[in-house]
Amino acid sequence: MADEIILLDFWPSMFGMKVRIALAEKGLKYEYRDEDLFNKGPLLLEMNPIHKKIPVLIHNGKPICESQIIVQYIDEVWKDKSPLLPSDPYHRAQARFWADYIDKKLHLLGKRLWRTKGEEQEANKKEYIECLKLLEGELGDKPYFGGENFGFVDVNLMPYFSWLYVFEIAANFSIEAECPKLITWAKRCMEKESVSTSLPDRQKLYDFFLQLKKWHGIE
């Protein structure tokens, strides 16, 4: 009997994107349901009653919440194809550390970039670039963060690069000028069908961003 997989998501979500990439890497077929976050559906509220947030993966009727946990679950359940986490316990712990760092630092700094202006935005921009340079240092000369193969840290970081176009326009800077190796890495990742088909068009994302600013009353 085939697995029933449903993904409750919201298309611009960085957290949802990483789950989509992981599912695509494993070659899994699933039902995608885009949620209205301003009018959350009964299934989302039933499946994630604690946080009431996307993404939620429903596997044979059982919900798994929180994007990093979902990606790890996908990797453990469908372990025979395209492993995302290293087999070595130390390297696995390191991959989890960097994925956690990405979610805690880049997400918050990205929000600050477009919600601030003037000197405050400049300070946030500096911190954002420093964060990316740290990640670039961790990447080094490797093709992917885990080495020769696309893996867990790559899955977690690529969704943030889908928002890069938005952040560059909002804060008037160029990541390619600051972190050329990261851009080369991102282009390499985009050559993978599992990545390119899981991330939204950047112009569509920018149009959503303009709406987002209006909702927050930001000029």
Low-confidence parts: none
CATH class of the largest domain: Mainly Alpha
Report the CATH topology name of the largest domain: Glutathione S-transferase Yfyf (Class Pi), Chain A, domain 2
Q: Assembly state here?
A: single chain
**Can you write the helix and strand succession as a string?**
EHEHEEHHHHHHHHH
**What portion of residues is helical?**
55-70%
What's the overall geometry? globular
The major beta sheet can be summarized as: 4 strands, mixed
What is the mean predicted local confidence, pLDDT? 94
SS-based structural class? alpha+beta
Compute the separation of the termini in Å. Answer: 53 Å
Instruction: Using the 3D structure, state the CATH architecture of the largest domain.
Output: Up-down Bundle
Count of β-strands? 4
Strand fraction: 5-15%
Strands side by side in the biggest sheet: 2-1-3-4
Work out the count of structural domains.
2
Q: What is the count of DSSP helices, taking H or I runs of 4+ residues?
A: 11
Radius of gyration: 17 Å
Protein name: glutathione transferase
Enzyme class: transferase
GO molecular function: glutathione transferase activity
Organism: Vitis vinifera (Grape)
